[in-house]
Amino acid sequence: MFQELLAVVRTLREKCPWDRKxxxxxxxxxxxxxxxxxxxxxxxxxxxxxxxxxxxxLFMGLFLADVLEKEQGVKLExxxxxxxxxxxxxxxxxxxxxxxxxxxxVLENWERIKRKEKKSEAQVKSIFEGLPRSFPGLKQAQLIxxxxxxxxxxxxxxxxxxxxxxxxxxxxxxxxxxxSPDQERQAEEIGDLFFALVNLCRHLGVDAESTLRDANAxxxxxxxxxxxEFVRQGRSLEKATLEQMDEVWERxxxxxxxxx
Length: 260
Hints:
The protein has 260 residues and is mainly α. It is built from twelve helices and no strands. Helix 11 crosses helix 12 (242-253). The longest helix is centred in the first third of the chain and has 26 residues, at 47-72. It is extended and about 65 Å long. The protein starts with a helix and ends in a 7-residue tail after the last helix. The mean pLDDT is 90.
């Protein structure tokens, strides 16, 4: 099926006017869109939806590969050979005689091998090399922290991170209550708080980006119920007071999940 999908991609790129005119610049956002749509399907856990979105995601990867070959001479075969070799090199406990005890040692070996590979280049690069700057902020923060963990720069326990979160909250409060408010300083302290919260998510095995999206979805679901309640009562949401809206919100918030 892989070869058949690849053949479909190449046929579309040859015969479809729209597909033929696509460039790297026009394809990049499409790749990101498919990644987000697949992630959303994974979050919902619907097998049929996941299957469909995974197919779209794989198609878009091969589509980009064809665009890159035509536009920049990057060959899919070279990319496949490169990733196969990289994975074998970085899993010596699978393809070699290295013995590891747990996941932590696997990641430490990965980082050590990666840095050794980079030393063969003219300049030794940072552990953050290759981290996409276009990533959403929460995802980027989690990856930054993960790379630090691999070299041992990390908190030991979630409680330690929770203490750091509390410290950052107090620093935000101090900025807000200061005699001469400084918006830049406030923004900086809030950024530190975000970073600490992402760290807490990581230590708890929670993906910060997905968690925030889930919280967004929960908020919207509940507020839609608030809107529906006001419509049912023949009342205008725009004319309601905050206290009136909050009363309905609290009632909805304490419903059982299957009542939402």
